Amino acid sequence: MKVGFIGLGIMGSRMAANLQKHDYEVIIFNRTQDKATSLINNGALWADTPEVVAKQVDIIFTMLANPEAIMNAALGEHGFLDNLAPNSLWVDCSTVNPSFSRQMAMLAQDKQVRFLDAPVAGSKNQAEKAQLVFMVGGDATDVKTCEPLFEAMGSRFIHVGEHGMGTSLKLANNLLLGTTMAAFAEAVTLGEALGISQEMLLNVLLGGAVAAPFLSTKKEMLEQDNYEAEFPLQWMQKDLHMVSIAAHDSGVAVPVTSNVKELYRLAMQQGLGEKDFSAIYSFLKQGF
Questions:
Q1: I need a labelling partner for 24 at 20 to 30 A (CA). Which of 101, 258, 260, 273 fits?
Q2: To which H or E segment does residue 159 belong?
Q3: What are the sequence ranges of the domains in the chain?
């Protein structure tokens, strides 16, 4: 089976590599070709445009930064949506807002293309080890079609419901991820200001009843003040903005998320956007 993959950042490149490991022929496109070098060396076919990808595949995955990038790849000049064969399947693994996913599903339907929103839980390490969790919205028959592909790239997939529901669950997940990291960073910063050593704070708080399990994976970054990105801070800020859009659409107040989103924006303005989102600790520690 030939599988198209558009978007080869930290996550997409590793997801495509895992498809290759399961003997899928992968046809790839990325805005910058240098990110595709290792995939090409392992046999992936490079396409010069999304249109060229679409003309060769029956299933196409997108893993892109934001709705604008998706719209450009799908509907822009040399976009893929007009060039997919009828009954092809488009699986969008990007983190966007649910109303956008539903809009893409309707646009795909108009082109006789099936659609799934299937964002993932996990970061760089989970993507590399094929341990992602796919949160999927769309028709059950289309989910069944993608089951072996999800299994090649992840440890689990969850069919949440209709179009937009996979994205909805992903936003709830990342709301917790982003706000929890910021709250933990604030707690450690306060503890240090009160005279407690960082070592004691991390050893006592991590693994305790009130600390989320994922925070333990950030311990070494905080200790070494080295924030090589597993999940870039700028994308966490974007995801929290997607939460804000979804909350506005559904009439829900998210005051905690709104404040944390702006905190990450301030950190971006201090040059931390490409660092791991745990670098919010460094930002708070320096003061603003």
A1: 101
A2: strand 154-161
A3: 2-163, 168-286
- Using DSSP, how many helices (H) and how many strands (E) does the chain show? 13, 9
* pTM greater than 0.70 (yes/no): yes
Q: What is the CATH number of domain 168-286?
A: 1.10.1040.10
The arithmetic mean of pLDDT across residues 246-257, rounded, is 98
254-282: b (≥16 Cβ within 10 Å) or e? beebeebbebbbebbeeebbebbbbbbbb
Could you give the residue numbers annotated as active site? 170
End-to-end CA distance of the chain: 52
> Could you report the per-residue pLDDT of 263-288, keeping only the tens digit for each?
999 999 999 999 999 999 999 999 87
Which residue type is seen at 262?
A: E
